Amino acid sequence: MNWAAISFDWNQIRAFWATAEEGSFSAAARALGQTQPTLGRQVAALEADLGVTLFERAGRSLMPTKAGLDLLEHCREMGAAAQRISLTASGASQAVEGQVRITATDIMCLHVLPPAVAQIRRVAPGIEVDLVAANDIRDLLRREADIAVRHVRPEQADLTARLVQEATARPYAATSYLEARGRPRSPADMASHDFVSFGNADEMIAFLAPMGIPITAANMRVGSESGVVAWELVRQGFGIAIMADDVAQGVPGLEPLLPEMEPIRFPVWLVSHRELHTSRRIRLVYDLLAEFFAGLGRGER
């Protein structure tokens, strides 16, 4: 270990991290209980030490530069590790108790989140995790959940959001279906195939059209509002569907289609209300979930 190379000031890292998450010096200062000038000086000192610019102005907000985004990923990992060290050293992880409600799609609750829940249970066995499987957007401000996993960043000022993963998706179908109907060789070939509808068929048609997949309502004779049911129909060979790679790669008997085609990319946001900053149990679960999704982004399962 090159101990001489580890010379950063944690307070500077913390000031940068809070500013990146909150979007401004003033909001970060409030979150950390500091004055805005003090926090600004800490960020400026970090920029001077590193020799890079970490933020650029975007209206009234501050946006991380490329160098800032690179540093932010490591800051989040450091922050999660620091909290676990603190909790472990004090035995506090055993004392953090109470229920935390996490809402996500039914597909994510079934296929993605169980390992994250297992990690939460290992770190803080006193926490009760309630997974709210819902394909609509539950209202965090009305406390229908404590933490939400979403693909769209919320606009409400009372909510805090962190981008935790840039996920990928592509068309999948069961091997049984492809052996019976043939494997499409191009996006245009999919016009002669069956698709399983997840909810609104018109929205799915409009989404696929710019990708050169010219399907119509005639291609979607089977589907369900339930993501879990629709995905099971795909698995049983009823047709093709777009699915996140994190989900599909863990299901046997399915094949990705058109491997040369660029995957669909979509964000995964972790969202909570402002109580995140005052509730130890919500903060702990939030940080563990952020670490989990960061691991998925690195290909860890």
From TrEMBL:
Keywords: DNA-binding, Transcription, Transcription regulation. One of its GO terms (molecular function) is sequence-specific DNA binding. It comes from Roseovarius indicus. One of its GO terms (biological process) is DNA-templated transcription. PANTHER family: HTH-TYPE TRANSCRIPTIONAL REGULATOR (PTHR30537), TRANSCRIPTIONAL REGULATORY PROTEIN (PTHR30537:SF3). Coiled coil: none annotated. Gene3D superfamilies: 3.40.190.290, Winged helix-like DNA-binding domain superfamily/Winged helix DNA-binding domain. Residues 8-65 form the HTH lysR-type domain. It comes from the Bacteria. InterPro entries: LysR-type_TF_proteobact-type, LysR_HTH_N, LysR_subst-bd, WH-like_DNA-bd_sf, WH_DNA-bd_sf. Belongs to the LysR transcriptional regulatory family. This is LysR family transcriptional regulator.
